[in-house]
Structure formats: C-alpha cells, structure tokens
Amino acid sequence: MSSERNRPFVYRVTLTPESLAEFDNHIVRRLSSMRGQYYDQLAYEAMLAQDDVILYEVYEIVRPEVPGELMTGLSIVHPGKVGDEYFMTKGHFHAVLETAEIYHCLRGQGFMLMETPQGDWAIEDLLPGNVLYIPPYWSHRSINTGQEDLVTYFAYPGHAGHDYGTIEQFGFRKLVLERNGKPVIVDNPRWRPPEER
Ligand code: F6R
Ligand code: ZN
Hints:
By secondary structure, the protein is mainly beta. It has a single domain, classed as Jelly Rolls (Sandwich), CATH 2.60.120. The protein has three helices and 13 strands. It has helices at residues 17-20, 41-50, 165-170, and strands at residues 25-30, 54-61, 70-77, 81-82, 85-86, 101-107, 110-115, 121-126, 131-134, 139-144, 150-157, 174-179, 182-187. Strands 1-2-3-11-6-9 form a six-stranded antiparallel sheet, with no helix packed on it. The protein has a three-stranded antiparallel sheet with strand order 8-7-10, with no helix packed on it. The chain has a two-stranded antiparallel sheet with strand order 4-5. A hairpin with a 2-residue loop joins strand 4 and strand 5. Zinc ion binds at residues 92, 94, 101, 140, 156.
C-alpha cells in the first residue's frame, strides 16, 4: 500500500467493516487507560471492576510525520457515562502547539471541549454536518452526550505530535456532566490556573 500512497488515493468513511479495514491503524482506548481522568473516582473504580469497557476508537491513515503532510482519520467515541460524566477522549495539546486541526462530525451528538495553555476555554457542538476548526494552541477533547456513537473525521498537520501530560495532570477547566438527563458544564475542581502549577 505504501508505494501506492505516493500518488493520490481515496478511502471511505462510510463505517462499513470493509471501509474501516482500509485504515492503517486502529487504536482502542479502554476505561483502564483513563485512571484519574473522571472526577468521580469511586464510580470509575466500580465500573472498572465490572468491565474494562472500550470508551473510544481511532482509525488512522498514517502519513510521514513532517510539515506538508496531513494526518487524517476517524474518531469514534462510544455512548456511556462514568458516574454522571460522559464518555470522552483523553484530550491533548499538539506537541507542536502552532498546529491546527479540523473535525467534521459525521454521526452522533456531543461537544468538543477546548483550552489554551493560558486557561482560556471554549466548547462547541459536535453535530452531524458541523465542521469544527481548532486553531493552533487549543487543546481538545471530544465528549459523547448522545445515545449512539459520536463519529468525527479529523485532519491535522503531519508534524503536530501529541502532548497528553498537561491534561492528565489537571484535566480541562470544565467538566461536562449529565444533570436531569441533560448535559451541563461545571468547573473541574482538579484544574489549576497556569500560574499556580
Ligand atoms: C489528533 C486528534 C484526534 C484524537 C482522537 C483521540 O490530533 O485530535 O485524532 O487523537 O480523537 O483523542 P485522544 O488523542 O485525545 O485520545
Ligand atoms: Zn489533536
């Protein structure tokens, strides 16, 4: 396949087993890889004791990790909650902060929670048809608030890389929780402003 990929190529995002088999990488993230990330740690441990469920999956078309290339693929966050906090991705900054990303929502419903190193934050709807443009410097986490898979198509620069450490340590400034059957945005008690870190 790799030699063919120095020429233009097509792949599909139809989510059929055949189309998913066209991707180079399939990354599976389970509950056990998110220890410390959900605010209700008792709910987390109780759930993990039952089953190490799959929270989300990523299908990637691998390209050289250099400026000029694009990394593209599908992100699929499954529906569910840990306590009253919706299933979500780990979230990250790009290691090269000066790199943007676009997400095109194909199915499901949810949010993208975003934050800058200075602590500015933003949240946008992920709904079918929405294209979200994430400028350079904004970390991002997708959150599934619906009853079905939240499927997004992403594209970002080949040399961006990923920095998960900051989010692992402090989380995002906000949490998205379910209250009376609806998503609400609340402060994350674990978060600290950059000057206090
Ligand atoms: C790449 C990107 C997405 C995410 C994917 C999983 O820069 O933003 O492909 O990697 O949605 O989320 P993380 O990487 O936060 O586990
Ligand atoms: Zn990213």
